[in-house]
Write a structure and sequence with these properties.
homodimer, globular
Chain lengths: 305, 305
């Protein structure tokens, strides 16, 4: 495929040009901006950047199902917050808890099994669970232009990582199939694990205690811990991604930071500042100052799914 | 190269046969034990498994140089422990501190610079620093049979990781050159990082506070966090590696856990239980129970360097 045919679901315009130009410069052998393949790292947020996050991030639907199971065993749960709000789909009350508290609630419902068991349980759920608005499997509510971009970057020697506030183990259940990203290239929020070495089979069990909530500055810090290398390209869609985008963009040499703006009520959803769980506000206001390229879903993508 | 010519620095014997047999079984298309390349993960300890750790792990020589620099600025340091012991090469006192405390001391001397600056400083040091006994560069005190094994595994679709109690950023300064392992496939001990976003250039600065001491059970737990997949092969040389070896070995399907025994005073060093900083005792006693293959440096390696 010639470069002119790359990224077919991206409309011609500034973001597509910026991507093609950036990749051309850093991969041009002998060019002044050439970067060795081993140093080509690209990091992507997950929810809202690679897949739908409205009305809620996928893993909340999964976790809430688990609350339902727990409530079936203990009916008093339905009278207590935040479980009551979960069971009544009362998003206003849930969003009032704040992003981290809501994730912690979700993670807590996964405690008591091993990481390996958890991934199997999540896989089973993902095999049939459908998005309430789009009617397709959650794991298929992924953006076609982003799949093209991930593949395009890999074709040009980049290692593609997912760096998300979502739970790492939940993402590990589908990222290979959905995005072609291997499990070990997922950096997410996590609960503490406990080493179970008493029996014949050693295993790691998931506890209800948070290990890391991987949002905002934590995204840059966890890239330092896991990858040990500043990304050359970062793609996000909310204020939670701003530190990662700034970290990537402010390194030496050619750099690219991209911000997806959901402005497409017709094909997907239009939202930014008012999404209490994960607003896009500061990043939008400061995109120009930080040299971040804003991608309009409506204008810059020919197709969404 | 035919399989018979693989691992030329390994002597014929049980460990070499176990490796060749294991790799043949899991890579045989259509075989009952075939494992997809995406699931082939091998984890190696670093100090004492891939390179010399006697009389001390390489990074202590580096850190102690830093103490020397600090003492030049503040002569009172030379009167205070543990700095006094460092400056006098008093290993007995230093080992008495215990493994974690000694690593923490080392890490503390690296605080106050960014992770990127640290790797450059370590690279500069490694470019000229020589091992006191072998007279060669530290980064060349790596075991030839292990370089062959790492390459052999990669040639057969394995992703090779280093999982060490050593500082991740220090290892990141040389693992690519020394072992062909990329920086992002290093899991080690770490200090906390701080996000510095005040200026134009965002950076991550290293603090003196420990984030994780990656030894014993922590090795298995950090594999869960970083890789999210149980290794199929694990190679270690001390009790600190035993949980990782058991974790790898006790999974389903074909598995291999290997333990290097330093019993070669002539070509390298002979030590096990008495090395206070990182003893090999329990792992040696229980190797048979856990199905761990013991590799004798003297008997199983034709060449060391």
């Amino acid at each position: 495929m010639s470069e002119g045919q790359s990224l077919p679901s991206w409309s011609d315009g500034a973001p597509k040009s910026a991507i093609l130009d950036f990749v051309a410069r850093v991969t041009k052998q002998g060019g002044s901006e050439f970067v060795a393949p081993s140093e080509r790292v690209a990091t992507f947020d997950n929810d809202g950047t690679l897949c739908c996050e409205q009305p809620l991030q996928t893993q909340f639907f999964f976790a809430f199902g688990r609350v339902k199971d727990l409530a079936a065993k203990d009916p008093t749960l339905a009278e207590r917050q935040p479980f009551k709000a979960v069971l009544e789909h009362d998003y206003s009350t849930l969003f009032g808890l704040g992003k981290q508290a809501l994730y912690e609630l979700a993670f807590a419902t996964h405690a008591g099994i091993t990481d390996e068991e958890f991934i199997e349980v999540a896989r089973e759920w993902l095999a049939t669970a459908k998005h309430p608005k789009f009617g397709r499997l959650f794991k298929q509510c992924v953006y076609r232009p982003q799949l093209e971009l991930l593949a395009y970057l890999r074709d040009h020697g980049f290692k593609t990582y997912i760096v998300s506030a979502g739970g790492a183990d939940f993402m590990r259940a589908f990222v290979d199939e959905a995005y072609g990203v291997p499990r070990e290239q997922v950096i997410g929020s996590s609960v503490k694990l406990r080493y179970e070495g008493g029996g014949e089979r050693v295993s790691l069990s998931k506890l209800s205690e948070l290990n890391l909530f991987n949002d905002r500055e934590a995204k840059a810090l966890s890239i330092g811990l896991h990858i040990g290398r500043r990304p050359m390209l970062a793609f996000g869609n909310s204020d939670g991604d701003l530190p990662m985008m700034r970290y990537a963009k402010s390194g030496s040499g050619a750099r690219l930071a991209l911000l997806l703006h959901h402005d497409d009520a017709e094909r997907e959803t239009a939202y930014d500042r008012e999404f209490r769980l994960s607003p896009l506000s500061e990043a939008l206001d400061k995109a120009r100052d930080y040299g971040i390229t804003v991608v309009s879903m409506k204008r810059d993508w020919k197709a969404v799914f």
